[in-house]
Backbone:
């Protein structure tokens, strides 16, 4: 019965499973397996962290999502380090370039912040929100779910938007693509698809092996009471 339930949930794109483990494996492991097959270039451990954080949120009050975006900031900006997954069909929609903040680093991002005016990127689990047309064109707002790590994203105007400087042609001359003021900016050629895929309450997970965050994140370590409190305060789900 548990196996049947898990298959039905995964087929529907619902990652909130009641059982924390089955046959010694985390309940989300089949979803990780399925997504990993579609994205062989994405480090499996990073994908596992992303799915585990998302499932922890869903299991503790967040509405299940249809899509998941993963950014691996441990990779240089000269690599395609953004992945977008369709959770219902368990397939990869896009792998592409994404910018990091000017003060986060050159080609490699090594510094992250939640502070207004830092011009650094933020890591952790986010929930996407409304699309809008602003000074950068068609863009997407999002809210950070991790207090002290990324929960000032909206206040900082950290959004997904198109930017001409997210240009792989720069790599040959600059050694990197261009950088933002902290936003995960994308190529204009894919921006509309990215925004339309992610708007309306999807999950985005930005990874960097910051050991303090890894040790303390309520989502990475799945602390149910803490996560439930965070989500209730946001009236999420």
Residues:
């Amino acid at each position: 019965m548990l196996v049947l339930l898990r298959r039905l949930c995964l087929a529907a794109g619902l990652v909130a499973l009641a059982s924390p483990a089955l046959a010694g494996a985390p309940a989300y492991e089949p979803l990780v397996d399925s997504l990993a097959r579609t994205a062989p270039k994405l480090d499996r451990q990073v994908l596992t962290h992303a799915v585990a954080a998302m499932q922890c949120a869903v299991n503790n009050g967040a509405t299940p999502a249809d899509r998941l975006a993963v950014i691996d900031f441990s990779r240089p900006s000269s690599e395609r380090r953004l992945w977008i997954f369709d959770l219902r069909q368990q397939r990869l929609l896009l792998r592409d370039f994404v910018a990091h903040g000017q003060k986060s680093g050159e080609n490699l991002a090594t510094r992250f912040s939640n502070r207004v005016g830092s011009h650094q990127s933020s890591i952790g689990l986010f929930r996407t929100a409304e699309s809008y047309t602003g000074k950068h064109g068609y863009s997407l707002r999002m809210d950070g779910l991790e207090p002290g790590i990324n929960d000032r994203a909206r206040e900082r105007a950290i959004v997904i938007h198109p930017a001409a400087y997210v240009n792989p042609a720069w790599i040959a001359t600059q050694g990197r693509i261009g950088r933002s003021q902290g936003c995960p900016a994308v190529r204009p050629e894919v921006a509309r698809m990215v925004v339309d895929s992610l708007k309306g309450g999807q999950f985005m997970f930005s990874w960097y092996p910051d050991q303090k965050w890894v040790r303390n994140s309520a989502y990475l370590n799945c602390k149910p009471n803490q996560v439930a409190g965070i989500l209730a305060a946001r009236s999420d789900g």
